[in-house]
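BUG: 3D viewer hangs when loading the predicted structure for this chain

Environment: internal workstation, default settings.
Expected: structure renders.
Actual: progress bar stalls at 90%.

Input used:
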Amino acid sequence: MSTRHRILTGDTPTGNLHIGHWVGSVKRRVELQSEHECYFLIANLHAYTTRADKPHDVHRDCIEVARDALAMGVDPEKAAIFLQSEVPALSELTYLFAMLLPFNRVMRNPTLKDELQVKGLADNYSFGFPLYTVGQTADILAFRAHSVPVGEDQVPHLELTREVARRFNKMYCGVADKAPDEEHEQLGGIFPIPVADVGKVGRLVGTDGQNKMSKSLGNTIHVIDTPKQVKKKIGKIYTGQDSRQPTDPGIIDPEKNPLFQYLDVFVNDEDMKSDIRDRYERGDNIGDGEVKMLVADAINELLEPMRERRKAYEDDAVVLNVLRAGTAKAVEATETTLAMAKNASGTGFFPRTVSFC
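Structure tokens produced before the viewer hung:
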């Protein structure tokens, strides 16, 4: 039996990708693309949940996100990068799956609640906002994905997807109620029950030193940032201990300093990290400034090859060709799934062919 599984993950185009995306998901995509069948989604329809009045900006961001993913090392010869709005099966499956989920279950999603709060939407949001969480289940299940590289905050979305897959397989494919997740396919289920592949860093704190790195909060370091911009942003990280001088006495816990997450994630020299942490704890002639310089240098070292790769995709036409090829593969894969789902659910009457030019 082949060990080559399908992998699906993606990004909502709300601006350029940042190092939080890299450590949370994109790094894992790059690692997986040589061994598995990978599809990477640009979720431009989901972007309309909060930016329906800015279609030109969303259009532009789709190209920028693709460009950044390619710069980060996603290989279009190994993985398909595609546009959500150009794959019709996703919308059809969203509608079908919406019938399998109680509205209250959708609204209990903690990630959805957090997004409503962070974005200040309160009760002022479109019907499409909660619907997009159902759309995410369609994005994943349309490819019959076995694994989904995600950040820590997206795990609740994936649990909703797992519920939909189980419910569909039991309702329409005859899978027994207590069937183990790993046996659904061999028992006749159309959909595998996908698992979360959370990066080693589930949540990277932003440059504000408090919240998760997020474009909406303006606390990010982007792939397109220059070395000077990276150093400036790292230099402004609020640690809560910025007044501390290297000669201050007393023991301070580095775990309370967000800089040390950056040190752990981006500095590869284990002996250096251990020495810095030990000196910091003891107040041994080291302050935040020295740690910030080490972190900025390490991040610039990571970003430099990405900046170089990005130059090959400066022309929009080159990026659009990559998206066209990837979307054609996505359409082919999802049409097969849609036909299976429609036949199982009784909604399929006639065969159809979707061509992609």
